[in-house]
Design goal:
By secondary structure, this protein is an alpha/beta fold. The chain is 63% helix and 9% strand. It is built from 23 helices and ten strands. The chain has helices at residues 9-18, 22-47, 49-57, 67-73, 78-127, 131-134, 139-181, 183-231, 233-237, 243-291, 296-329, 331-346, 407-414, 421-424, 437-441, 458-462, 473-482, 486-490, 509-522, 539-552, 588-594, 597-606, 613-620; strands at residues 366-374, 384-392, 396-400, 425-427, 430-431, 444-447, 527-531, 557-561, 573-578, 581-586. The strands form two sheets. Strands 6-7-8-3-9-10 form a six-stranded mixed beta sheet, with helices on both faces. Helix 5 runs antiparallel to helix 7. The radius of gyration is 36 Å and the shape is elongated. The model is unreliable at 605-621 (pLDDT under 50).
Length: 621
Amino acid sequence: MHRFRKNNFINSWRLGIGLMTARERKMMFSLFFFVLAVGSIEMIAVYSVAPFFKFILSGGDMGGVPEVLDNFLKNKSETTLIWIYAGVPAFLLLFSFLSSVAMSWVVLRFGIGRWQRISRDIVSLVQNVDSGWHSKVNASEVVRVFFQDTQYFARDFVMFTLTSLADIVVIIVLMFLLFFTLPWQGIVFFIVIGAAIVFVVAISRPRLTAYSEVGREMANEMNVKYGELLRGYKDIRYSLKPQWFDRSIDLTVLTASQTHMKLNLWGKVPPQFINFLSQFSLLMIVLIMYGAGMPLAEIAASIAILGIVASRALPVANRLAVNLGKYWQVHPFLLGLTELQEELLSCQIESNGSNAPSCRNMAWNSVALKLDNFSIAGANRASLRNIDIKLEKGGLFGLVGPSGGGKTSLIDVLMALSNTSPSAVSLDGIQLSELDISSYRGCISYVPQTPFLVDGSILQNIALGVPEADVDMDLVRECVKKSGLVEVVDSLPEGIHASVGDFGGRFSGGQRQRVAIARALYKKPKMLLLDEATSALDGKMEDAMRVLFEDLSRDLIVFLVSHRYKVLENAKEIFVLDHGEVIEQGSYRDLISANGAFWRMISLGEEESHLPQEEMNEKDI
């Protein structure tokens, strides 16, 4: 990718074309010929007006008309000739207009289709990326790439590439038509226009390059800072000097706005310069013709033809100059999108695809995780080593350990969110690499400490992704009851349809966790993974959830990560993880009796109140 980092026309072209599929390149090649045909029709239509003007200005003396056409027209009356000279261009102009509208629609559809396709591809890649990638990137910057860079690829590169190709064809066709009618005047006019385009692109290129790169950096910064402001407004407001954040945002916005102003300025100067130069060249051509002794009527007819050509050539030349400059402007965005795509591709989790056996119809009696050594590149997490655990249906399993001990990494591997998952995880004795990973994930429910809630209703968050018409309301009510949400729902005027707010901001932490638990139950999983899922619940509700998880463990695999050890009192087996290694495992009572790491964690006073009194008495003795 380093070979494309230099911002120039060729690299922008290569990056843009490289982001297309082989099928899209063929479609674009075919579309070019369609655009070429429409551009040629438009030029013929525009130029067909010239004979009419020449006929009027010369007093009916056309001269130089081909013999076949002259024989056809010589016996026609003046009125008939005017209708012919006016009617044919009118028909061609109407046909050209309809063709141009059709071309614009096709080009727009093609560009929008590429936008949708690349967005779908990146979303699909993110869904299957190794969890370590998420710990290395800034989510706000990635969101900006999703939103802005994909637009620059589809809206700007794809569309203005086709438009530029059409504009080049238009200018070439105009040159030939004009050279055929007014040889030396046409040469002078197009030399001036061509020189103007080259000059404008040359002086604007370095500025567009610099400003576009700064603009992209400022867009990243604004995305990050506004996100931090919305997520951390309390911490910022009550920090020692909250004004520093205001000044930081203000400086970023100032730089971004000034850069945007300069980009717009350099977008407006080229067409204005080309207009000036073309008008000046027409004036010079008139003076040259007059100085050469040409009759005024012939000068008027020639300038009329040049004026007709200029009326079409100038907008095309302006647009072409701007579009050519955009190749330098879009380079940072195409490069960023390409780098994101390649980075995601390099971090994909291998899968056998949908052709592999599905996990949905398997018994799910056990899930085993076995790996010798594993670390997440670039992530600030403990490496996992010498892991050999087995989770079974019919009992609650727990995972405990100090912060940073590797619990999240272990859960990620177990959830098939890591490159090592296919070889490390097995279901009912069959390695995950031999099964359909997508179906494996589809059988798992996961409840994190800080659940993700969409800005929608409680119902939408419980039946996440299910169309409202397809929601099983009986199952929703059952999940609401089991998760202890009944009182919350009944207390709201809108009930189950009440909005939870952005990121669940209208609910407390405990209420958000209960919504997430209800969502997990609605999925009817084969395995339930709970990562500090009761950390925000009060004692009474936590006891209720403990009973619920123990009941669920009779029919499915339940694996609970917690620092609140009371919920694990009746666990079939608890794994104690420290520095990425299982240093103890056994039942709650066995681990207490062993007087090892588990007991030491409890004896710190963190959870002493949760110890069964008889165990505390034994230890005191």
